[in-house]
Design brief:
Number of strands: 14
Strand order of the largest sheet: 1-11-10-9-12-13
Strand content: 15-25%
Helix content: 40-55%
Oligomer: single chain
Distance between the termini: 75 Å
Amino acid sequence: MISRIDLRGDALPEGPALRDLLPRADFDVQAALEKVRPICEAVHHRGDAALIDFAERFDGVRLESVRVPVQALAEALEALDPAVRAALEESIRRARLVHREQRRSTHTTQVVPGGSVTEKWVPVERVGLYAPGGRSVYPSSVIMNVVPAQEAGVESIALASPAQAEFAGLPHPTILAACALLGVDEVYAAGGATAVAMFAYGTESCPPANMVTGPGNIWVAAAKRYFTGKIGIDAEAGPTEIAVLADDTADPVHVASDLISQAEHDPLAAAVLVTDSVELADAVAKELEPQVAATKHVEDRIRPALEGKQSAIVLVDGIEEGLRVVDAYGAEHLEIQTADAARVADRVRNAGAIFIGPWAPVSLGDYAAGSNHVLPTGGCACHSSGLSVQSFLRGIHIVDYTKDALAEVAHHVVTLAEAEDLPAHGAAVKARFGWKVPTSK
């Protein structure tokens, strides 16, 4: 069901050569870009009418309005299963605890007497958040996007999720209920690239946003790339992935169940086990069969994901080599199931989120750890981090110098301006001192 890659015996290569040996899904955003271009431009020129036409084309339902009535949010919350409501409320509570601690405060550095630089943190004014609604419903993604935006102080928050024919063109009622719990009442029935275009350009119903965040399929990723530079984005999220670094202390039942849990997202989902134990590898491979047979979504998601080129059991000589492999892979989710797992986890450099030991599965992080599950994929964890309060903040430097403080450093400014052949830069300083630059004291 799952292939093996044997990296034992020979010295592991460095950098890209090692990354090239590791499994990864095909995810060609550039090719998808050309397909979303006309969709985005149709929304640009035709606004709500284009959104309604695309909902009929892609979601199989003709909308009367793209904006979801506020009453529909209240009704969805009222009809929500009490157990689901309690779980969502606890997820929100824990997420707020973690994200509230990420807030940044204004800080002033006194560089010299009379000269200071203050950094203040200002939230973006308006964000458009996306909650997918294809193979599954993701109220958890509503929480993971809304909570950090709210804790950052964003004043205007809108959310989009695909129209559902089953629910008369509204997004899934659990999505609407989650919005109601969070106090978000600006919700749109729009999916994929059309939702990103709606937020980027604005329409009759939806004012444009400064930033768009949230996971999605390749069309969402392509639309984000299309609008890069016009709006802020969090990331071009690719297929979800899990890597498990494990030794012979790991429980194969746990490892197999965690690989399967990620595979059920999508046929392109990646499930990777890195281990120095052939016995564990054999036991996990054996354990996959009965667990897969006992669950849902087998033929359309789990089996294609586990059998795909993006999933594998990777054999290494030891945990040191395993650490090099997982750092090269840069997993969205990385579980450490080894002896002294906390110490091993502390040495990891590249991961979207790290889960330590047998009692911190990725599923916990998806819903109720308090951490954020909107994370970098496709190896982007080597340079990017997951969604957080900081994603919605901008640091602005405020420079405040007196005449004496400028005079003290003026000759350096002029010297560097002339070294860069930008004499007007120096002249802007000279003009303040009668064109004669003070000498240093």
